[in-house]
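# step 3/5: fold
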Amino acid sequence: MAKTKIVIGDWWLVISEKIKKKIKINQKEFIFLLLILALSAFFRLWRISEYMTFLGDEGRDAIIVRRLLVFLDPILIGPGTSIGNMYLGPLYYYFMAPWLFLFGLSPAGPAVGIAVLGVATVFMVWFVSREWFGVKAAWIAAFFYAISPVVITYSHSSWNPNIMPFFAILSMYSLWKIFKKGKVIWYLILGTSFAFVLQSHYLGLLLLPTILVFLLFVFVKIRILKLFENWKLEFVNFLRNTLLAFIIFVGLMSPLAVFDARHDWQNAAAIKKFFLERQTTVSAKPWANLDKTLPIYDQINSSLVGAGDINATYIVTWGSIWTLAWAIYESIRKRKLVFQTSFLLVLAWLGFGIIGLSLYKQQIYDHYFGFLFPAIFIFLGTLFSFIWKKSNRVGKIILVLTVGYLVLVNLAGNPLRYSLNRQLQRSLEVADKIVEESNFARFNIAVIAERNYEDAYQYILEWRFDPVVDIDPLNYEATSTDQLFVVCELQKEKCDPTHNPKTEVANFGWSKIEGEWDVGGVTLYKLVHSL
């Protein structure tokens, strides 16, 4: 046993030394980093199977990915969007696949994958902030990203927008590396990561202006200013590498194009309709919506940093605005940027995002900010660092008290303080009861609920038992069974399963209740055909 401990200890020392050398940090910083990552992992992974969301959308995704793993059924299209008849690409499903496989097809697997990616995003926020703006900015940005209630909530459930923050910051970091050094690997990473961003949510398009602006800067830097001794060669490399990045991006987007070609370009038509018929969704006049930028910035701060607290949000919003104005004044007075030029990238990232969101005419939800999650924390971490550097002793005390207040507000809103939703466990309990009462014979299923549908229960049934059949009105004789199980998530007096207009109930035909049970907080009915 002692020998084993020595071997493990030696292994850990070797690995830790290599990590410290690679990211260029000392022992103290390394310990702090491990503590922040451990804290973020705890908030995201603790009892994740009981906190994770598992409703119809998650069940639908799991059904699709299970078919990929079990039947090798290739996936060409991703989840549908909430607006129009638009679909995303399938990259999120391929991200889910190894996690679903590793966890024995349990839906908890992809949720764990999202949580691990969330911890990786905390590391990226620290790493990028440290490289761009220094140690203090890195600790503030990473710590607040680790404890933000909204970020945690979207880091412990399997959902396509939840991968966006990681790939957004990877896109921006690779763009910066292109601007600074221009190595081909960063072009390839940019093409790959931006494809993941766009296939997690179409709001990822709001990263495109920043990408194009900074690629233009690279072009100017090489072609006009001629900063390189061999600028012609650098220019050729730039064009070649940009083309490679574009090819990678197009290749990763191609499954969606193949699907669209097979289905009369319905997705392209929906996207065209969304952007060209702007009366109800997108404004065509950016200048007419500038008054919305401040409320959107305030909403971002409230959701991500202020944890919904009015006072915290006010402090962050107006404190950051005045600090930015102070930094601009200092830059003008000294005729030199008080921040590194990478701050311009963060401002472009955040600025284009806020302006783009201001064009959207409908309600903006927290997950719409996914591509800005890392940006706001890096931005605020940098401003906190600036204030600390410029303040006297009294100013530093005020800053420490402000940070302490924000920490308390975020910890008070931590999702782990709220009741477990146990949606996965409920689905498992209901599925077990259905199979027990079906006598392992074929059956149909329906769900009566306000915000849920059949696929969560159907996935569990397909995964563990596989006797469930969807009724097809065009093939009624083959797909209609002798029993229909109805899961009602409403109050019992609102259920009325035999007369509910739900399609799955209506397709079953005239029926009567043969059994009724309370299972996992819902009411389960067994219907049979009435003579």
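# step 4/5: annotate
The chain has a mean pLDDT of 88.
# step 5/5: archive (pending)
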